[in-house]
Design brief:
single chain, alpha/beta, 2 domains, 4-stranded mixed sheet, 15% strand
C-alpha cells in the first residue's frame, strides 16, 4: 500500500493506521461474518485515542455565527457583486438576498421556524440557493431531495413508503419546489 499525504500528516503513520484498520476489519468479519459494519471496532486503543483526542482539534471554539449572518455580511460589503453564475445567468448578492428574504417571510408566515425541516426539491440553480438560504433565514433546516430521483417530492410526502427504500421522514412538513411553490404535506 502506498500513501500520499499532505504535511503535517506523516504518510508512514497514515499507512500504518490504514493497515491496522483493515486488519481489524478483516479479523472481525472472519470471526462474525454477520456482524453489523458499524459495530466492528477497527482501531486499537492507542490508535483510537490518537484519532479522537490527539488529532481532534475541535476544542477550538469559533465565533457563534450562522450562514445567514455570514451571507448578510457579504451582501453588505458587495451587494452588486455576482454571487452565482448558472447557465449564463448571473445573480448578485443583493438580488439573491432579496429573493431569499421574500421566500423566508413566506415560510415563516406558514409556520416554518426552529425545529422545522423543509424539503427542497430543486436542481442546481440560483433558485436552489435562494431556497436553502430562505430556509436557514426562517430558522429551519433544509433537506435536499434530489429532483432527478424518481418521485423526489412524492418521497417526502409519502415518508419514503414505496420509494425504493427511501428513509421515512415524518418530520419534513414543507417542500419547496420549482417555481417557488411551497407546500405543506
Amino acid at each position: 500500500m502506498t500513501v500520499d499525504a499532505v504535511p503535517p500528516a506523516d504518510p508512514t503513520h497514515v499507512g500504518e493506521l490504514l493497515h491496522t484498520c483493515l486488519e481489524s476489519l478483516i479479523t472481525s468479519l472472519e470471526r462474525d461474518p454477520g456482524a453489523r459494519f458499524d459495530a466492528v471496532g477497527v482501531l486499537g486503543g492507542v490508535e483510537r485515542r490518537r484519532v479522537l483526542v490527539e488529532w481532534n482539534g475541535s476544542a477550538v471554539v469559533g465565533p457563534a455565527v450562522t450562514v445567514p449572518d455570514l451571507f448578510a455580511g457579504q451582501v453588505a460589503r458587495t451587494p452588486g457583486a455576482v454571487a452565482v453564475v448558472c447557465g449564463g445567468r448571473e445573480v448578485s448578492y443583493g438580488e439573491l438576498d432579496e429573493r431569499a428574504n421574500r421566500l423566508a417571510r413566506l415560510l415563516i408566515g406558514r409556520g416554518v421556524g426552529p425545529e422545522s425541516v423543509v424539503g427542497v426539491v430543486l436542481g442546481r440553480s440560483p433558485e436552489l440557493l435562494v431556497a436553502i438560504l430562505a430556509v436557514l433565514k426562517a430558522g429551519g433546516a433544509y433537506l435536499s431531495v434530489g429532483c432527478r430521483v424518481a418521485g423526489g417530492a412524492d418521497r417526502v410526502r409519502a415518508g419514503g413508503r414505496g420509494a425504493g427504500g427511501g428513509a421515512h421522514r415524518p418530520d419534513v412538513g414543507w417542500v419547496v419546489r420549482a417555481g417557488g411553490a411551497v407546500r405543506w404535506w
